[in-house]
Structure to design on (872 residues):
C-alpha cells in the first residue's frame, strides 16, 4: 500500500523526472560543479549540530538489536534531512584531498520524519550546488548561484522561475540599527509575515523582543520592500536607519541583483521579507517561485553560510542552493502540467511473424540498438494487429516487419516504407520520448 | 568520521561512477526497459515476506518517538535490502496502471545491516532489470537477460565479464530423480561447495537429508559440470538420472547458452554448481564474474521467480538481474583499475586579469557554456601563473585569456591560439573527462 509522505512515480513520470535531472546535472556541469554523493546516514550528533530540526530525524535501528538497550547518541545513525549538513561534514573529513574553492553538485534523496501534508514529503529528491572555500569565500560566488539556477530553469519544461533574494546582514543590521538586540528572534518573527499577517507580527515583536510600536512598524516597512533592480537600496536608506552591517548587506544584495540583471533580466527580485527559517545562513538568502505556483512557496532555496564547517581554527565558508525536485514535480504532476510522448524508452517494436523467427528478429533488434535506436522484439507471435496494438498502447512510434525486404511502419501516420536495420534511422525527435 | 560499511567516493571517483551508471542506463533503455524508482522504505512485513534476510533489515524510528512503546510490526518501516522485493510490491500495487509484459530498470541504493567485511557494504548501489508478466512469462525473456548484461559490460571500461548460468529445475529435478526429497536443503548444502569443499558437502548431505554415499557423490558430480555450449546436457544425462523437471530444466538452460553463443560467443557458461542462496528463484539463475576478480565472487546476479508477486489468484512471474555497482567499483577502485583525466567537469578556465574584468570574463564563460563547453571563471585575479596552476591541479586542459583578440592555451602542450568564445570548440575527446 502507498505510505503517506513517500511518493512513487509511475514509469512515465519517472521518465519526466529523469529528463529534468539530466538537464539539471548538465547545467551544473557546464558551470564546473563536480559530482558528489554522500552516504544516506550521519551520526545523530552531526545531524543535531545544526539545531532546530531534531524532531525531523529518522533514526536507524538494526532489526536484531530490538530489545537491547538504546545506543548512546554518538553511536546512533540517522538519515540525512538535507544535503548541506552531510556536505559540510564531507569537506571537514576530506579537506586534505580536495582542491579549494570546491564546487560540487549533489542529487540525492533526503528524509524528514514530519507529519506529511500537501506538497510536503517524508522522502524527497533534492539537487544541490555549493561552493566552499578555505578561510574566506569571495562574494562573487553569491552572485553566480542565481545565474546557474536561472539557466537550469530555462532548460526545463516548467513555468518561468523568479529567484527572490535577501541578505541577512540587511535585516540584522537594520534591526540592530533600530535598537533591537535579539535580531535572531526578530528575524524568526518577521519570517511568519505571510502566515499570520503584519498586525500579529507587530504584536509579537512588541511582546517577544520588547519592540516599541515604532520599531515594530519599521521592521514591517523593511519587509515590504521589493524590487527587480538596485532601487531597493534607496528605499531602505529612506527608512532612516544606519548601521555598518546594514550597509555591507545592501552593497552585497545590490551586487546579486545587478549581476543577475545583466545575465538574465527579470530573473532575480530583491525581496526583503525573505528570511529562511534555518539557523546557519549568515548573508545572502535565496528562494524561488514558479509563475502560477507562487502560493505553494519556494521550490529552490539556499544561501551563504560562514560557520557550518570548520577544522580547528580553519573555517570553510560556503554558499549554495537546493532545488526541491520531488516537490516541484509533485506540484506540476498534480496540475497535469508535464506529459511524455510514450511510457517506455522503446522507439521500435520488431514484429514477430512466428516463434521460429525470433532469432532473426533478435538480430534485427541488435542491429538497430547498435546504432542507438531503442528496440524491443514483440513478446509473442500474436496477430500483427495485436502486435501493433502492443506498440500503440505504450506510445511506441514504429513497428518493424521482417520480410524480403524488411519494412517499417510509423503507426501514427500509417506510412510504411522499405528499410534496412543496418541503415534506417528515425527522425531525431522520435528517438527519445518527448517531454512537454 | 567514516562509518564502516557506508562507502563514499571522492568527486573524481563519483565521476567514474556516473560514467558507469550512464552507460548502464543507456544499454537498459536500448532494450526498452522503462525507469522506475521506488521509495527507500517498505513495511517490515513486506521485507520479511521473503524470509532468510530478516536480520539484515534497518528499521526506521522517528527521533521524537524515542521512549514510546515500539510500534507493531505492520506499522514499522524498514529500508529495502534489494530492489526486487520493492518492485514486486510496486507491481502488485499498480498492476491496473501498467502494461504487461512490464520491463523496468531501477538504479538505487539498498541497505543491509550486516557486519561489514571486505567488499561487503551496508549501503550500496544496485542497477536492476526485470521483466514481469501477468499469469505466465515466456521463457525467451530468460535468454534475453544475459544479452543485455553482456552489452552493458562490453560498454564499460572493466575486465571481461562471464555470466555463469544454471537452472534450479536441473538441480531439483536431478535430486528428486536421485530419490532425495528435501531438494531445497540439498541445494543449500551444495551451495557451500566453494566454501567448505566436496568432502564436507558430501558428509553434510548424508547427515542432513539422509543421502547415501552414492547419492551424495552424484550431487557432487552434477555440480562439477561446466560448459560454454550445450554439451553439458549430455554430461548430465550420462549421470543416469531421469526426471521430467530435470528434462525441462536442461532444455531451458540449453536455450540460454545457445542464444548467448549466437549473440556474444564466450559470454555465458553453464555452471551447474551455481545455486543463489535466496529462496525465491524457481528456474534460471545467473551470476557474473569479472576476469581477474573471480575470487571476489559475483558482481551481477539474478534469476527467474514465479511466485514473488500475486494479486488474488493472479500471479506475476518475473525474471531479472542486479548489477552490484558499488561492489564492482569498490573492487576496481581498490586495484586502481579505473582513472579519470580530471577531477572536475570543467574544460576551460577563463583567466581573470583583474576583478574589474569579471563581468567580461563571465560573458566569455556564458558564451562557451551556451555551446556546451563546461567553463569556470578563475576565482580570483591572481598572477596568471597561479591561475594556470589552478587549472593544472584539477586536470582542466584549457585556460582562456581575455584580450584583443582572446587566446586559449592548451596547458598540456603549451600551444596557445587566437580564439573567439562564439566559435572555438575543443577537440571532442577534451570536452568531457576521459575514463580509462
Amino acid at each position: 500500500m502507498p505510505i503517506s509522505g513517500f511518493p512513487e512515480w509511475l514509469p512515465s513520470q519517472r521518465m519526466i523526472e529523469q529528463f529534468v535531472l539530466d538537464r539539471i546535472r548538465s547545467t551544473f556541469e557546464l558551470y564546473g560543479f563536480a559530482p558528489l554523493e554522500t552516504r544516506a546516514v550521519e551520526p545523530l550528533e552531526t545531524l543535531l549540530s545544526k539545531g532546530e530540526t531534531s524532531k525531523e530525524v529518522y533514526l536507524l535501528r538494526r532489526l536484531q538489536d530490538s530489545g537491547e538497550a538504546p545506543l548512546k547518541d554518538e553511536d546512533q545513525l540517522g538519515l540525512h534531512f538535507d544535503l548541506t549538513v552531510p556536505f559540510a561534514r564531507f569537506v571537514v573529513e576530506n579537506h586534505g584531498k580536495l582542491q579549494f574553492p570546491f564546487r560540487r553538485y549533489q542529487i540525492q534523496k533526503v528524509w524528514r520524519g514530519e507529519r506529511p501534508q500537501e506538497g510536503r514529503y517524508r522522502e524527497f529528491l533534492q539537487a544541490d550546488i555549493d561552493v566552499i572555500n578555505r578561510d574566506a569565500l569571495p562574494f562573487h560566488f553569491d552572485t553566480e548561484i542565481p545565474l546557474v539556477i536561472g539557466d537550469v530553469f530555462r532548460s526545463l519544461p516548467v513555468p518561468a522561475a523568479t529567484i527572490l533574494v535577501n541578505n541577512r546582514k540587511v535585516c540584522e543590521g537594520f534591526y540592530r540599527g533600530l535598537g533591537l538586540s535579539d535580531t535572531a528572534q526578530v528575524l524568526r518573527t518577521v519570517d511568519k509575515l505571510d502566515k499570520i499577517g503584519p498586525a500579529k507580527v507587530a504584536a509579537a515583536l512588541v511582546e517577544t523582543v520588547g519592540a516599541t510600536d515604532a520599531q515594530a512598524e519599521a521592521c514591517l516597512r523593511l519587509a515590504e520592500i521589493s524590487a527587480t533592480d538596485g532601487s531597493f537600496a534607496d528605499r531602505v536608506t529612506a527608512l532612516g536607519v544606519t548601521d555598518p552591517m546594514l550597509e555591507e548587506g545592501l552593497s552585497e544584495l545590490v551586487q546579486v541583483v545587478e549581476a543577475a540583471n545583466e545575465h538574465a533580466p527579470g530573473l532575480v527580485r530583491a525581496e526583503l521579507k525573505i528570511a529562511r527559517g534555518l539557523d546557519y545562513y549568515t548573508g545572502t538568502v535565496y528562494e524561488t517561485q514558479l509563475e502560477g505556483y507562487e502560493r505553494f512557496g519556494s521550490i529552490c532555496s539556499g544561501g551563504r553560510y560562514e560557520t557550518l564547517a570548520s577544522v580547528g581554527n580553519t573555517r570553510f565558508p560556503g554558499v549554495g542552493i537546493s532545488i526541491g525536485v520531488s516537490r516541484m514535480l509533485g506540484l506540476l504532476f498534480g496540475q497535469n502540467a508535464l506529459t511524455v510522448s510514450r511510457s517506455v524508452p522503446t522507439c521500435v517494436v520488431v514484429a514477430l511473424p512466428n516463434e521460429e523467427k525470433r532469432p532473426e528478429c533478435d538480430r534485427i533488434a541488435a542491429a538497430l540498438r547498435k546504432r542507438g535506436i531503442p528496440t524491443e522484439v514483440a513478446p509473442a507471435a500474436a496477430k500483427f494487429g495485436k502486435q501493433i496494438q502492443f506498440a500503440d498502447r505504450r506510445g511506441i512510434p514504429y513497428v518493424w516487419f521482417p520480410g524480403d525486404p524488411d519494412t517499417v511502419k510509423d503507426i501514427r501516420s500509417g506510412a510504411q516504407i522499405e528499410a534496412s536495420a543496418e541503415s534506417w534511422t528515425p527522425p531525431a525527435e522520435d528517438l527519445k520520448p518527448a517531454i512537454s
Q: What stands out?
A: Residues 187 and 258 of chain A are 25 Å apart (CA to CA). The first helix of chain A runs from residue 11 to 30. Chain A has 14 helices and 19 strands. Chain A touches chain B through 85 residues (CB under 8 Å).
